[in-house]
Design goal:
This protein is of the alpha/beta class. It has 23 helices and 14 strands.
């Protein structure tokens, strides 16, 4: 990016539009990808544009790419495919120590010619590998690079060209990166290569006829000699924009590669990340209890009126076993929102907690989803999963079902909709515009949760500054029990960050805790009889928990979550177990960052789960503790395009 201004403010207002159309073409073509290189360049391009590797599509594509890795660590037994695939894994957060990256490095090291220090004595493959190592494994570059760099230096002509313009750009970037990590390099190669790149584009409209090839000299200018208002860069960018097809792709040699490399070229010049809010593709998984069996069906987005369904029977013992998934989470997260963070002893945790969760999830997958439904789900194009479940089955670990590749709550933007035979009048709501939306933020009402206090300020600021919502913020003991109850009908979105209690014998006596006392669930219901908020996020321990065996209590005995749902709240987020204070705060902020971008509630929650899991401390399972009741494809508020990118 330029030092003074980004390129999209320097005479190219159509730059963002070009990148957006390119990204949408790549996303639209994602279902047709087959080769490792296609997957890899598509992933890297989308991540470069959106600067967010948590999107559902990227996570799905990276899973497909990982499955294509061979036992020898390569992709397709080719350095080209392997280098790009390893770069894509790096772009989405895989560490150099991960099994996949280690295996890729092993293949790369095994194919290096020990005599010349090059790869196949080919400049293109050699520079692809060196560029990858410079960006992902500097220590390995220091070990393997010197002979290859020396050899590449011998290929430069008196005019600065190295074989061709594409190779010249690659060499300039590789030498620049090597120098940045402390290797001794010949700077004259960089200087002469950049001079050659500039001379060529000044003499002709563009370097080559293909977008994927022009990526390399443009990248070299941006890496090595980027200047504000650089006319050579401006000329190259103009060519990329003008050569884009009307449907968003670039097509000179290969649709996928030309488009992905063009998006990669242009994305670093955007002043802010691209935010592409796609329409959700919704799959519906319905589970109903009848006559001692469970009926399971799945409706694939875009299919006809016939929905496949099967019945299965679950023994009492299996049902008890399935409930242990949540108990595993409870036993691990022994501390909830507290004034001082509790540092548990390492011995309190199972070293294999993630493995145990996955094992329990696969056990649930086998017992709760019939084989036919499993097959349909595996091949589904859905990115949101609406889970319509019988109210008598809410105690089962639906979010933590694991299909062998991923947990459902991480694969999809997932939300529960309850099927109930209790009397209930559904409320229809549309997202309200920012100017009409009122938000209540109540944070740390007991004045003993510093992280919750910070959370309240950050959530309020995010919603107020980014979306211009009308936000009323109350921290510490600024709101009493009476104030809260009387405020419930006034607001469209309520965020509560504080303490909650759960009564396992009488869920309707579960409470929100304020400085002047507790508010039980049965009292909350009375103040929502005529109007309720559209969305409620109770960022508190146990806030979504009910009784473990719904068959043993009256359906009128509702916990906090179901109290809000039966009052007409269309989206409720809470936790099934205690959650650590600081982790709960970061989780909530990440959810709202998605909301203010215009992402669906389900996708915002899914991204927060992925972010939390990737950054979690030992024993922190906040990511799998949250539950959404409501349509996951719904949006909390209407967000203008300008607000998304602010």
């Amino acid at each position: 990016m330029f030092e003074d201004q980004a390129l999209d403010t320097l005479g190219f207002p159509d730059l963002t539009s070009a990148v957006l159309r390119g990204v949408r073409w790549l996303k639209g073509n994602a279902e047709n990808l087959t080769g490792a290189r296609d997957f890899a360049v598509t992933i890297s391009a989308i991540v470069a544009a959106e600067r967010n590797h948590h999107s559902q599509l990227v996570q799905r594509l990276i899973s497909s790419l990982v499955r294509l890795q061979a036992e020898n660590g390569s992709w397709s037994d080719e350095l080209w495919d392997t280098a790009w695939a390893a770069k894509a894994l790096h772009d989405v957060g895989y560490s150099p120590e991960s099994d996949q990256m280690r295996a890729a490095y092993g293949f790369i090291a095994s194919t290096r010619d020990p005599r010349t220090g090059t790869w196949y004595e080919e400049p293109f493959e050699t520079m692809l590998v060196l560029d990858l190592l410079a960006r992902t494994a500097p220590a390995m570059l220091s070990l393997l690079a010197p002979p290859g760099l020396t050899w590449l230096r011998t290929l430069q002509g008196v005019d600065g060209c190295i074989v061709g313009i594409r190779y010249t750009g690659m060499a300039a970037s590789v030498f620049h990166l090597a120098e940045k990590i402390g290797l001794s390099v010949d700077r004259t190669l960089i200087t002469n290569a950049i001079k050659h790149i500039r001379n060529v584009i000044r003499e002709q409209p563009i370097w080559t006829a293909a977008a994927w090839s022009n990526y390399y000299p443009l990248k070299a200018l941006l890496d090595c000699d980027n200047r504000s208002g650089d006319t050579d860069i401006l000329k190259a960018v103009r060519w990329f924009i003008d050569s884009q097809d009307s449907d968003g792709k670039w097509m000179q040699v290969s649709k996928v590669h030309d488009t992905a490399m063009a998006v990669l070229s242009l994305s670093g010049l955007l002043s802010v990340p691209l935010i592409d809010v796609s329409e959700p593709r919704i799959g519906v998984l319905s589970v109903f209890k009848e006559n001692g069996t469970i009926r399971v069906s799945f409706h694939e987005p875009g299919t006809g009126a016939i929905t496949p369904a099967e019945r299965l029977k679950i023994s009492d013992q299996v049902r008890e076993d399935l409930s242990r998934n949540q108990q595993l989470v409870v036993s691990t997260m022994r501390h909830g929102r507290a004034a001082q963070p509790v540092i548990p002893r390492a011995s309190e945790y199972s070293a294999d907690i993630d493995f145990e969760l996955e094992k329990n999830g696969r056990y649930a997958y086998g017992h709760l989803l019939p084989a036919r439904i499993q097959s349909v789900l595996q091949n589904s194009t859905a990115d949101h999963l609406r889970l319509e479940i019988d109210e008598r089955l809410i105690d089962l670990p639906w979010e933590l079902i694991h299909d062998g590749g991923e947990f459902l709550c991480l694969r999809y933007g997932l939300g529960r909709l309850l099927m109930s035979d209790q009397e209930f009048l559904p409320v229809r709501r549309r997202p309200r515009s920012a100017i009409d939306t009122r938000v209540l933020v109540v944070a740390d009402p007991t004045n003993d949760l510093p992280a919750a206090r910070l959370e309240g300020r950050r959530v309020a600021s995010l919603l107020r500054d980014r979306c211009k919502l009308r936000v009323d913020e109350f921290t510490t003991s600024g709101m009493t029990k009476k104030d809260f109850l009387l405020s419930l009908r006034t607001y469209d979105l309520i965020h509560f960050a504080g303490h909650a209690s759960h009564d396992p014998r009488s869920p309707d006596e579960s409470c929100l805790v304020f400085a002047d006392g507790e508010i039980p669930a049965f009292e909350i219901a009375r103040f929502l009889a005529t109007r309720s908020p559209a969305m409620v996020f109770l960022n508190a321990c146990w806030s979504a928990e009910e009784l473990r065996d719904p068959d043993l209590y009256s359906p009128m005995m509702r916990g906090l979550g179901r109290t809000f749902l039966y009052a007409g709240v269309t989206a409720f987020i809470g936790y099934l177990v205690p959650v650590p204070d600081e982790s709960a705060t970061q989780f909530a902020i990440t959810v709202y960052e998605g909301v203010v971008q215009g992402q669906s509630i389900g996708e915002s929650l899914r991204r927060a789960r992925v972010h939390c899991r990737n950054t979690k401390e030992q024993g922190d399972l906040t990511w799998c503790s949250a539950v959404l009741y409501g349509d996951p494809s719904a949006r909390a508020i209407e967000v203008s395009p300008d607000a998304r990118h602010s």
